[in-house]
Amino acid sequence: MRLRETYNKRKQLIDIIAEEDISDFKEFLALLPNEEQKFFLRNDIIQLFKGFCIASEKTEEFMENSSIALFLRRVQELFVRDDHIALMFRFAI
């Protein structure tokens, strides 16, 4: 029964990132393969997102409280290999 409860609590990315933020999230992800660094820890990811927000002229509110920002604060690590991105997301702390 416990496994079933855990399964039912899973969310998909579409449930986490607000619909109005999806295009910005895709833009942010598209920049990652261009970075020299291919392995990012949480602080690296947050700094990259802040840089993206500044370059895209996003508001401070968006930078701190958008669904993307809230999601990225829970990403532990992110790997970029070729055109693939893998990330470790902590659903519950």
Largest sheet: 3 strands, antiparallel
Shape: globular
- Give me the secondary-structure category: alpha+beta
Round the mean pLDDT to the nearest integer and report it: 86
Run of helices and strands? HHHEHHHEE
Q: Reading side by side through the largest sheet, how are the strands ordered?
A: 1-2-3
As residue ranges, the low-confidence spans are 1-7
Distance between the termini: 21 Å
How many strands appear in the DSSP assignment? 3
* Beta content: 15-25%
**Count of DSSP-assigned helices:** 6
Gyration radius (Cα, Å) is 14 Å
Helix content: 40-55%
SSE arrangement:
Elements: H1 2-9, H2 13-16, H3 22-31, E1 39-41, H4 42-55, H5 60-65, H6 67-72, E2 75-81, E3 84-89
Antiparallel strand pairs: 1-2, 2-3
Structure, explained:
Helix content is 52%, strand content 17%. The protein is built from six helices and three strands. It has helices at residues 2-9, 13-16, 22-31, 42-55, 60-65, 67-72; strands at residues 39-41, 75-81, 84-89. A three-stranded antiparallel sheet has the order 1-2-3. Strand 2 and strand 3 form a beta hairpin. Mean pLDDT is 86; it is low at 1-7.
